[in-house]
């Protein structure tokens, strides 16, 4: 099976696991999640594997079965270790919280002063592949690495480049980051905004503010509050 096909099947099974969980079919949810994990383990896709481990730890941690709780602990520890190897400590801290909630042994959640040796370019490749970049080009990997460092900051980011170089893929790294944390990611195609309505669309308006304003409308910036707004084609 090709790498892309394996990633897509694993992603599909993770979605099915989430649906089964929401509908109370926990046996089916666990089966789909474990199959997704096996697929990701087979191709050594560490970023997506860490996310799958974390999802399953969250799913299992509320179970009353001691065996399931040990399983949740194992998944949380594996996820935390992988996130730390990838330099994504913020994501790993969530797993540490799960371990504490499960009363894991203190050595599992104690601060670690040494991180497993991991070549920077390999780390960047893991992150790049997880977001759709299949490349070994050093400069592209450096751009991906720098973008990943901005994910948890409030910085304003301007992405520039020729058509087809992957600006949207970089932007969607931020979408994945926000969605994982339950925060909004709002995309706006600036070329589709009529010039005379830009202010109203971005900032909203109250009923009666102008002719035709029959209702109060939230602006796009308000919809994105607490998350990220992607102003696509802003230079056009």
From TrEMBL:
Recite the UniProt keywords alphabetically.
Activator, ATP-binding, DNA-binding, Nucleotide-binding, Two-component regulatory system
Which one GO biological process term can you cite for this protein? Answer: phosphorelay signal transduction system
Entry annotated with the keyword DNA-binding: yes
Sigma-54 factor interaction domain sequence ranges: 133-236
Gene3D superfamilies given for it? P-loop containing nucleotide triphosphate hydrolases, Tetratricopeptide repeat domain
Q: One MF term in GO for this entry?
A: ATP binding
The UniProt entry, under InterPro entries, shows: P-loop_NTPase, Sigma_54_int, Sigma_54_int_dom_ATP-bd_1, TPR-like_helical_dom_sf
Entries under PANTHER family matching the protein = DNA-BINDING TRANSCRIPTIONAL REGULATOR NTRC, TRANSCRIPTIONAL REGULATORY PROTEIN
Q: Please identify the protein, giving its name as recorded.
A: Sigma-54 factor interaction domain-containing protein
